[in-house]
Amino acid sequence: MSVVVGFDEAGRGPLAGPVCAAAVILPPDFPVEILNDSKKLSEKKRLAAEAVIKEKALWGLSFVDHKTIDKINILQASLLAMKQAFDDLLSKKEAFLAKNAVAGGLKASDLLLEKLHGIADGTFVPPNLSIECEAVVKADATFPQVMAASVLAKTARDRFMVQAAQKYPGYGYEKHKGYPTAAHKAACRSLGPSPIQRLSFSY
Question: What gap in Å lies between CA 15 and CA 37, rounded to an integer?
């Protein structure tokens, strides 16, 4: 029986900042009732779920910056972030198994590449994965592993944008997280593009 790796991203729509993606494998005893599509959870519930995912699950995370987005386009950047998130997940496998050896749950044999099956939210799969993967529309509302990836990607990206607001005041990143709100567009017209603006996006 295959073990599901959930993939999702956050930040395809914004005019500024990176896109962030996560890959997650949940143990059998994970409390899935705390999960949902990250956009349907309050910030408080997202942060609480993030802590549990990072404690109990095997996960990876990756950012692809605004310059790369401008160079290869947002779709390819999103898929690249998912691929890099999976690589990050694999790099944590041995430490995860050592930590969870006594508690049980996922075993080394469960995490062999041939046992893993990826599910990516959307209509495209990450390139050059070492496992089979399928794209499922609205997977972040169906598969707990993808919900968990959605939570990690959104909380990490939101945190990045709040920090960016301190570096680049005036753009309101702490409020809109770089999304194309009227206030964000007005700030860009008034102040010019910020150092993390996606210049290939119109604003």
Answer: 22
What does the pLDDT look like over 141-150, one tens digit per residue?
A: 999 999 999 9
Pair 23, 59: CB distance under 8 Å: yes
Residue type, 163: Q
Q: Give the DSSP H/E element, type plus range, for residue 151.
A: helix 144-167
**How far apart (Å, rounded) are the C-alpha atoms in residues 75 and 29?**
34
**Residue predicted with more confidence, 98 or 153:** 153
Judge whether 5 and 25 are in contact, CB under 8 Å: yes
Query: Helix (H, G, I), strand (E, B), or coil: what is residue 169?
Result: coil
pLDDT value of position 99: 87
Classified as helix, coil or strand, 64 is strand
Q: What is the pLDDT of residue 104?
A: 55
What is the Cα–Cα distance from 161 to 43, expressed in whole angstroms? 14
Cα–Cα dist 192/96, whole Å: 45
pTM comes to 0.95
Rg from Cα positions in the chain:
17
Residue 110: pLDDT above 70? yes
First CA to last CA distance, the chain:
48
Please report, for residues 52, 123, 140, the alpha-carbon distance to residue 79 in angstroms, rounded to integers and kept in the order given. 25, 11, 16
Do 71 and 54 form a contact (C-beta atoms < 8 A)?
no
Which tens digit of pLDDT belongs to each residue from 56-65?
999 999 999 9
